[in-house]
């Protein structure tokens, strides 16, 4: 298809100086019938069409009016100052110049003054290809609070200034000037944490009801004691730590059963178990 050339004389509007009569809305709806219409009707219709063509030729995008139903995401208009708007919500009679909340219209195109040229951008912003040479290094580092190489220690310097805790320091756990390595942490746990480096031991033969013992292992231990109850008998077990009665177990049964206590004795604490009516059947310690 060949190019359509723009016609001349688009600024001349038919009947702009002649007599015109608007046919009325009803006539516009029905159109011509079998009739001889007045020439003024034709003048009005041709005038209106030429006027619109001249308007579009002059403005490119039509100026907003209060009669058109504008369609969301399809309609574009100019405001009173030449700003081009795009419709975002279908409506009638919502002036884009007054729509400050952008409910019906948003600005379609930014003006050239809203953008920087490439030269302006290069002068204003750091460029990736310069790898940070755009910055004043000292000022930039100070602003983001990062140390320079002269303000930090290297690995050798850190090693020279660092002391690893000894086994004794790790086990005691009182120093605040040495570092704990994984091995020292394990040594601390072995020396202080219940269950690490300990095993359950049957100490029944070396324990007796009502006798006080002292935990000298250097870390907490757990004590578990039970007494067997036979038919129509009872057993009462009472556990003491540092003289405090911390647990009592009572079993009175018509059949065979047990009474039992289980408790923790901290390092250097005294502990005992008293059995009433029945002898102790088992005394075990996690130590």
Short description:
This protein has 287 residues and is an alpha+beta fold. It contains 7 helices and 13 strands.
Helix content: 10-25%
Secondary structure: number of strands: 13
Structural class: alpha+beta
Shape: elongated
What do the pLDDT scores average to?
Answer: 89
Q: Which series of helices and strands comes N to C?
A: HHEEEEEHHHHHEEEEEEEE
End-to-end Cα distance = 100 Å
Q: How are the strands of the largest sheet arranged?
A: 6-13-8-11
Strand content: 15-25%
Strand count, sense and closure of the main sheet?
Answer: 4 strands, antiparallel
CATH architecture of the domain at 200-286: Sandwich
Using only C-alpha atoms, the radius of gyration works out to: 49 Å
Low-confidence stretches: none
Write the CATH fold name of the domain at 200-286.
Jelly Rolls
The helix count comes to 7
- CATH class descriptor of the domain at 200-286: Mainly Beta
């Amino acid at each position: 298809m060949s190019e359509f050339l723009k016609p001349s004389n688009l600024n001349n509007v038919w009947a702009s100086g002649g007599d015109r009569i608007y046919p009325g809305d009803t006539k516009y709806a029905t159109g011509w019938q079998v009739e001889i219409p007045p020439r003024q009707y034709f003048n009005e219709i041709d005038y209106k069409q030429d006027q619109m063509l001249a308007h579009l030729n002059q403005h490119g995008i039509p100026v907003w009016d209060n009669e058109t139903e504008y369609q969301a995401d399809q309609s574009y208009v100019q405001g009173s100052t030449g700003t081009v708007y795009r419709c975002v919500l279908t409506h009638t009679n919502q002036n884009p110049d007054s729509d400050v909340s952008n409910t019906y219209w948003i600005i379609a195109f930014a003006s050239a003054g809203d953008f920087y040229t490439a030269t302006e951008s290069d002068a204003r912003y750091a460029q990736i290809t310069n790898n940070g040479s755009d910055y004043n290094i000292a000022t930039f580092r100070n602003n983001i609070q990062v140390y320079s190489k002269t303000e930090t220690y290297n690995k050798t310097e850190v090693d020279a200034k660092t002391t690893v805790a000894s086994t004794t320091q790790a086990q005691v756990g009182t120093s605040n000037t040495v570092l704990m390595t994984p091995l020292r942490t394990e040594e601390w746990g072995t020396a202080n944490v219940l269950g690490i480096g300990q095993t359950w031991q049957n100490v029944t033969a070396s324990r007796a009801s009502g006798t006080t013992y002292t935990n000298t292992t250097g870390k907490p231990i757990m004590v578990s004691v039970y007494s067997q109850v036979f038919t129509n008998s009872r057993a009462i077990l009472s556990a003491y730590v540092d003289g405090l009665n911390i647990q009592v177990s009572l079993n009175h049964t018509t059949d065979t059963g047990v009474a039992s206590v289980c408790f923790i004795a901290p390092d250097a604490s005294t502990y005992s178990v008293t059995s009433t009516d029945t002898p102790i059947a088992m005394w075990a310690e996690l130590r």
